């Protein structure tokens, strides 16, 4: 009996034969894809290492040059004649020399473009500084605790990274002892240049991949990610942590947080994975995949720059190559299977045709059912759209009715003033007409003509009073046009003329005719102004000082009109609910609380808005925003 475990697939039963061929093809595809993936990944990592290494060499050389470009400046400071004289002079007599040397250091600093230059005496006190003109200058600061001072005062030039306590900005310090040739070359002080390195961080570290600069203790001094700054790559031992003086970093917590990143072998490139708690910090760069860590020493500063290049694109490219290889192999296998399946497909065509007919019939039924459902849904949507349009028309009509009711309410409030304005000319017309009739009976035609001319003038005066009222009370649809704000405010103020005189309100306005043109409906804008002015007069009824302000200004393509008063003002709660419908601060029966809500809706229909602010003179300032008329499209203003 043959051994089925070692038999050829063709000798197996059909079912097991298909399973064996499928298993063999699967193993072949998986094996080929794995080999192609690993090979492509290795080639990609090597290519990335070569490119990143070349870029890192250029960046490291540039950073070294930028940091140390001011290294020779401290040695040249003592060439100025006033530096040694300043250090030789006692403290009470140093003022004039300190100013001269500080001015020299300022000029030198301006020429170099950025570093801070200063001179320290033997006690570590800054006696001259290039930043003497600033309020937070270094003059008088005690920097004796800084390592560069201790090295330089002992006679050795020094360079050191640190943060002084006066201006907590990190920098790289270059220090040079200042020796007196007249006193046996004794060290009289220290010349220091502080080179700013934040520009270096922004320019050379903010690249596509995260990068850090660490010192010989593994402390991150500069980083493209601010969260990593002053952390350690690895937890520091106790003795190394104790050697760190917090004063050198202006109280920053240095080395207390560890990134737990190992960069051993990073000179040639090493694959690292960031801890989970640091992955969010680099989300802006790549994600949570592995990184290729490359490092270079900066010999001039004893630092090391480390760049973390994202390997996810390499893995993605390798996966793409593996997928292409699997696809190519699959195509070959499918080509081989094609000829074997051709005979089998010929036998099943009839069955497939029958199945297709059944599927087609079922699909037609489904399409008919779906079409009926869609038709019903479209009909429902059409009904809903009609209902919404009907509701919108009803709402707009109700708003127009509210606007008209508010206008009539204002006219009712002003009825007494209007009656007073019209009663005097009417009485005069009655008397003059009787006089004219009497004079005509007497034959005095000249006197009768003068009386009738006066009657005509009084009739015109009454027309001037009535026309604004007719315009204001007219119910008309909103039609936007060019509106002169000066004319609109004059018309609104005219309606309150009697009340303004009675309350002795001082009106302050800067609106000149023909200057402030807005694009809106004049009648609706007058309604808004009447509402705001009426509210202002109500608020100032009991105020000791009554001033109504109407000020306009232009902000881009809009005109802002401010209506302010000196009334009692509004509480914080009232300002928050000011534009709620039916909210009012007036006594019951004096208002419905709809005026401001309607006014804001009117302005928003024009593309404007209405807001409330606290007036500088007390009271409330309402800010009206309206679209202005472009100069090329200005129409004649309408009042």
From TrEMBL:
One annotated GO molecular function is: ATP binding
Keyword terms of this UniProt record:
ATP-binding, Cell membrane, Coiled coil, Kinase, Membrane, Nucleotide-binding, Phosphoprotein, Transferase, Transmembrane, Transmembrane helix, Two-component regulatory system
Primary residence: membrane
Where would you find this protein in the cell?
Cell membrane
Q: Which CDD domains match?
A: HisKA (cd00082)
Entry's Pfam families? HATPase_c
Question: What EC number(s) is this enzyme filed under?
Answer: 2.7.13.3
Looking up PANTHER family in the UniProt record yields: C4-DICARBOXYLATE TRANSPORT SENSOR PROTEIN DCTB, SENSOR HISTIDINE KINASE
Write down what this protein is called: histidine kinase
Give the species: Giesbergeria sinuosa
């Amino acid at each position: 009996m043959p051994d089925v475990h070692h038999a050829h697939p063709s000798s197996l039963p059909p079912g097991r034969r298909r399973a064996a061929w499928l298993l063999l093809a699967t193993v072949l595809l998986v094996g080929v894809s794995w080999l192609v993936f690993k090979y492509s990944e290795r080639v990609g990592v090597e290519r990335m290492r070569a490119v990143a290494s070349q870029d890192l060499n250029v960046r490291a050389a540039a950073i070294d040059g930028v940091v140390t470009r001011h290294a020779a400046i401290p040695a040249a400071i003592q060439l100025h004649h006033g530096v040694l004289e300043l250090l030789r002079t006692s403290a009470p007599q140093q003022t004039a020399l300190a100013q001269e040397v500080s001015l020299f250091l300022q000029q030198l600093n301006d020429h170099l473009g950025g570093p801070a230059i200063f001179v320290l005496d033997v006690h570590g006190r800054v006696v001259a500084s290039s930043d003497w003109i600033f309020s937070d200058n270094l003059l008088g600061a005690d920097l004796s605790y800084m390592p560069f001072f201790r090295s330089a005062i002992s006679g050795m030039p020094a360079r050191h990274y640190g943060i002084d306590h006066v201006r907590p900005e990190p920098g790289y310090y270059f220090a040079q002892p200042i020796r007196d040739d007249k006193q046996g070359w004794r060290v009289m002080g220290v010349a220091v240049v502080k080179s700013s390195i934040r520009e270096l961080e922004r320019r050379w570290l903010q690249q596509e991949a995260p990068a850090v600069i660490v010192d010989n203790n593994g402390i991150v001094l500069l980083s493209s990610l601010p969260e990593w700054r002053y952390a350690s790559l690895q937890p520091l031992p106790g003795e190394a942590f104790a050697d760190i003086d917090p004063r050198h970093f202006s109280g920053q917590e240095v080395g207390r947080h560890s990134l737990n990143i190992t960069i051993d072998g990073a000179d040639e490139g090493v694959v690292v994975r960031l801890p989970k708690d640091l992955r969010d910090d680099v989300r802006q760069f790549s994600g949570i995949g592995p990184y290729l860590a490359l490092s270079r020493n900066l010999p001039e500063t004893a630092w090391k720059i480390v760049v973390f290049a994202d390997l996810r694109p390499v893995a993605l490219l390798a996966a793409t190559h593996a997928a292409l290889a699997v696809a190519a192999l699959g195509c070959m296998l499918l080509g081989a299977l094609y000829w074997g399946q051709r005979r089998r497909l010929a036998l099943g065509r009839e069955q497939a045709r029958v199945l297709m007919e059944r599927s087609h019939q079922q699909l037609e039924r489904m399409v008919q059912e779906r079409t009926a459902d869609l038709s019903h849904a479209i009909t429902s949507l059409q009904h809903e759209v009609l209902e919404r349009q009907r509701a919108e028309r009803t709402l707009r009509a109700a708003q127009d009715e509210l606007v008209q009711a508010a206008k009539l309410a204002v006219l009712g409030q002003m009825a007494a003033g209007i009656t007073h304005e019209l009663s005097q000319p009417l009485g005069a017309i009655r008397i003059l007409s009787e006089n004219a009739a009497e004079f005509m009976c007497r034959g005095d035609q000249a006197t009768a003509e003068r009386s009738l001319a006066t009657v005509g003038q009084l009739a015109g005066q009454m027309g001037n009073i009535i026309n604004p009222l007719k315009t204001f009370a007219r119910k008309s649809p909103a039609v936007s046009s060019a509106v002169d704000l000066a004319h609109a405010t004059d018309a609104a103020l005219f309606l309150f003329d009697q009340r303004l005189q009675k309350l002795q309100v001082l009106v302050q306005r800067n609106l000149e005719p023909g200057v402030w043109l807005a694009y809106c409906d004049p009648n609706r804008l007058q309604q808004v102004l009447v509402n705001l002015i009426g509210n202002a007069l109500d608020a100032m009824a009991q105020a000791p000082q009554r001033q109504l302000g109407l000020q306009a200004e232009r902000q881009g393509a809009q005109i802002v009109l401010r209506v302010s008063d000196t009334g009692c003002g509004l509480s914080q709660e009232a300002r928050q609910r000011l534009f709620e419908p039916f909210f009012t601060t007036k006594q019951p029966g004096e208002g419905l609380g709809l005026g401001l809500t309607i006014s804001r809706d009117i302005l928003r229909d024009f593309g404007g808005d209405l807001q409330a602010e606290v007036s500088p003179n007390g009271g409330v300032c309402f800010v009206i925003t309206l679209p202005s008329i472009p100069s090329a499209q200005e129409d004649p203003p309408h009042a």
